[in-house]
Amino acid sequence: MSECLFCKIAAGDIPSNKLYEDPVCLAFHDIDPQAPTHFLVIPKAHLASVAEITEDNNAVAAHIFSVISKLTKELGLESYRVVSNIGEQAGQSVPHLHFHVLAGRDMTWPPG
Ligand code: 5GP
Ligand code: ZN
User: Fold this and answer.
1) Quick one: which of 46, 40, 52 has its CA closest to 11?
2) pTM of the predicted model, to two decimals?
3) Does residue 39 sit in helix, strand or coil?
């Protein structure tokens, strides 16, 4: 079995507060929310980060962005931020591709 935390969440071996699921991806609330709305969208198939997206597998990223667009509309979110951290220096703590969706408070730029 994979040792990857988000692979385990995708497989249902570790519980999560699910928002959306289809055969390709899963959206679930972040365990340590940084905004009133903070959920993650992950592919079910393991990729370590955006750095592993290629011409051959980019359909999963396009699908995830269409899911983010749909879910945020359903949640009535008109303004939100989508973030993906790649590598330790950028703050990636879980090495399975994920997009943070944050909303519900004023955000600053540049991010810390
Ligand atoms: P990263 O730091 O890699 O950009 O984002 C990983 C995110 O996963 C963090 O925001 C962290 O709070 C969240 N996270 C870590 N472990 C779990 C978990 O077991 N369940 C959920 N729902 N979120 C988690
Ligand atoms: Zn994984």
Assistant:
1) 46
2) 0.98
3) strand
